[in-house]
Structure formats: C-alpha cells, structure tokens
Fold this sequence. Notes:
By secondary structure, this protein is an all-alpha fold. It is 76% helix and 0% strand.
Amino acid sequence: MNQQTKWSQFGVLITVFFFWGFVAASNSIFIPFCKKFFELDQIQSQLIGSAFYGAYFYGSLLLYLFSVVSGTDLLNKIGYKKGIVYGLLISVVGAIALALISGSENASFGMILVAFFIIALGFSLQQTSAQPFAVALGSEETGTHRLNMAGSVNSFGTLLGPLVVSFLLFGSITSQKEASIENIQTLYFFLAGLFILASFIFAYAKLPKTTSDEKLEKSPKATSLLLLIGIVFLPVLFSDWVKNFTGISKSIIILASLTIILLLLFAAMTMAKKNPDGWGAMAYPQLVLGMIAIFIYVGVEVTIDNNFGALLKKNAFGGYDEASISHLISLYWGSMMIGRWTGAVSVFNFSKKMKRIMVIVVPYVAFGVILLVNLIKGNNISEFLPYPFCIAIAVIAFLFAEEKPVKLLLTVSVLGCVAMVVALTNTGMIANFAIISCGICCSVMWPCIFALGVNGIGKYQSQGSAFLIMMILGGAIIPPMQGAIIDMESSSDPNIYTFTQLSYLVPLICFAYLAWHAIQTKSVLKKQGLDVDAQVAASH
C-alpha cells in the first residue's frame, strides 16, 4: 500500500483513543471515593479495576471464540468502522446505567461494578477495531507513526481524566463540595453524551470499510488455555461471594488465581516446545513470554496508581484526602505522556543529532503541558518543581537505550526497580515522586514487549497480537493483590504506614520480572537467529 495517510479520517479515529485514557485514568480518583462512600476494604475498592480490565479480556476472548466457532472473523465481516460504532454504543449503555444507578437510593457497589464492566466491554471492541484501523488509514510503513500519535492522544486523555473527574466530584481546589454518589451521575451522563456524539460522528463520517484479509488460524490448545484462564479469573471478580461461600480469605483467592494463571502460561510454553501442534502463535516462546510480560506490565502500570490514593492519605506521604490528590494522580499519568511523546520522536525522519535534541526537549515540553493543565484546573503546582530532576534521569535512560527494544525495556525496568526501592525506603515527596516517575518507565514498555513478542512468528502475527491484547487482564488482578497487603494494616493511626508502603514490593517484583523478561526474550530470539536490537541499529 503506497498511499498517503488520510489525516481527516485519522483525526476522527483518534477520539476513541482519548476516551480510553480519560476513563482508565479517572479510576484513580473514583476508587478512593468509592472506598470511602461504600466503606470498602482496599481489595474491594480495587475490584473497579478488576471489572474494567477483566472486561477487556472477556471481550477480546468472546470475539476470538466467535471467530473460532464460526470460522468467520466478526470484525472482518462488519468492518472496523462498525466495530467502533457498536463498541461506543455498548459503552453508552454502561455509562447511562452507571449514571442511573448513582441516582438511585438503592445504589450498590456491585451494580456499579457491572456498569463499569459494560463500559469497558465496549472499549474492548473499540480497541480491537481501532488499532488495526489506524494502521490501515495510510501506508503500512507509516502505520507505527499513526499508532504512536494515537497513543499520545490517549496519554492526553489520561492527563485530563483525573482532573476533570476530581472537579465534578469535589469541585475546585478553592471551593470544594462534599462528594456524594449523585455527583457521579453528572459525570457519567456527560460521558454517555460524548459516547453518543462520537458514535454519530463515526456512523456518518466518510470512513472506509476497512478489514483484514488474513486467514484464521485454528489453535485448539491455545483456545483451551485461554478459556481456562477466563475460568480461573472469575473467583477474583466474585471474591466476596466466594469468601462467604468457602470461608477462604479474598487475599488467598486472588493470590491463587494469579499464581495459577502464570503457571498455566509457563506450562503452555513448555508443552508447546515439546509439541507445537495445536498451539498456533503460542508455539513460539517469545509470544508466550510476551503474553506474560504484557500481563505483568499492565498490572504494574495500573497497581502503582490505583493504590496510590491509599498511600497519599498517610501523614508521612502528605496526608491528602480524596479531594486533593488529583494533581499527583494526573502527574503520574502525565508522566506516561512524557514518555510516549519522547518515544514518538523515533518515528520521525530526523537526523541522529536532531533526534537526540528532541529526546531532551520533548519531555520538558510535555511537562509544561502538565503544568498548564493543572494551573487551569486550579491546582497548586509548587509541589511539582523538583520533578524535572526525575525527567532528567529518564532522558539519560532514553539516550542510553538508543531506541533498541531489548535495551530500552531492560533500562526502564531496572529504573523502575530503583524507583520502587527509593519509595520503599523514604517518605514524603521523595517517595511520592519515585512512585510517580514509574509512569515514565511504564510509558514505553508496551511497544517494546509487543515488538519482541510478535517478532519472527510469521503467519501467526494477527493471532499473536490478539493473544497479547487479552493479557491486559493483568490490570484486573495485580492491583487487588497489592490491595490485599494494604488491608493487612492493623492500625487506623494515619502515621502508621508500614503495610501500605510495604505493598509497593508488588510493583518492585513486577519490574524485576520485566528486566528478566528482556534478557530472556533476547536469548530466545537469538536461538532463532533474530536480534531485534541489531536490526534497529542497522536501520539507522
């Protein structure tokens, strides 16, 4: 395909990327609010993320199973455009349901989780359609450029989400109102309206009915494994009911599900190595390693932030209440934007010297945008002033990695480990900034893991990509695992923070695993005669 990017059509498409980021980052404000309002423990509050990211997994799994059973790719049949429209309408149903539930006297946390699940189910269909659609709106060679730009828009949504939701729930910093469940109604009626508007724009926009012509590859063993993972995860979603029925604590339920899922994936890699028949894309060890890494990466990205509110309430870390954490939450997600904007520099045809200059300049431009947005919202940004030091360390790391996937993934993973050690051994803004800076570390992990996972898998590229996207499931199970440690806090004294701070051992372990993953995947690919870093170096 030797065609120019259709920028007017692409401009319409990237609106959904904004929605995903806006809603996902908003959970960081919504979780501590629900914890207080419904008097939940930390594990229960994390079920918002479990419902949200679990829906991504089940939505992708249902699409995959439909294709396997029918022998027809559903998205291929209806086209990516209709897939996005239908996904938006599903999200409308969830948003309206959440708004109506919020206005009801009988509102329950369980009902809110169901509504969240429906919203994310729509997002799952949108994302499965929008990612390949973005690549198709122009030449294949520039597809990565468009995905990087779409990712930048997604990051802007993650920056604005916590600030807008905080304003709607609590008012401005200078004039706070008492948050109530009814405040949520305004937010989600507003979101439902935006989803409806976007669906109309997509329905009537002159977008091509783009599809893929790739042949479906049957992989019965991989299908059975994914179904088993879906069953193993269900007790996490229904942990309260399972606890009441069996007497097993929620933390044990979550730990057991997490352990079994990881063991199943590692066992699949071993079995596929002995007999690759029936495993499809999972016959390639780099793909299975990539699935595990995506699971861990999404989990660490979400858990760092979703449990951050519990830490910030402690006096040793600022003593913030639910209404006054939005600026720090937005800085975490803004750090993701800093990293993604910097990562996007590599897709432009700059000289080597200009690229180095841009890698230094772009992060601080992004930081300026973060400051501006917080100023407009009315937040006090004086606490942000030392943060450019953290950005400088990240810039050095990016320059050192030289755009090489293995080297970059290893570098930011080690940097994440260092940041977590700092957070575990310090208090106050030093610890807070260490945690927030992990947003920059996480920002470039997805493309690195994805590129390494699908490298050399040939005709299974499409199937392998679908399997990797399913592993967003990690965002549904790792955060409540960290929440289980926080719930070990026995004292209500706000100055006692031992277990809340100690819970950040979970992200430390995740970053350590991702560092190992980079080294192990490089070794696996080298045995197949593949060296991604060398290929990247040769292309410059």
